[in-house]
Amino acid sequence: MTKRARSFDAAAALYGANRPGYPPALFDAVEELADRKLAGARVADVGAGTGIATALLRDRGAEVLAVEPGDGMAAEFRRANPGIPVVRGDGDRLPLAGAAFDFLTYAQAWHWTDAARSVPEARRVLRPGGALALWWNDLDTAVPWIAEQDERLRAFFGVSGLPSRECPAGLDVTTREVRWSRRIPLAMHLANTASHSAFLLLGEDGTRAFLDAERARLAPLFPDGTVEERYVVTLNVAVM
Question: Is residue 195 part of a domain?
Answer without folding.
Answer: no
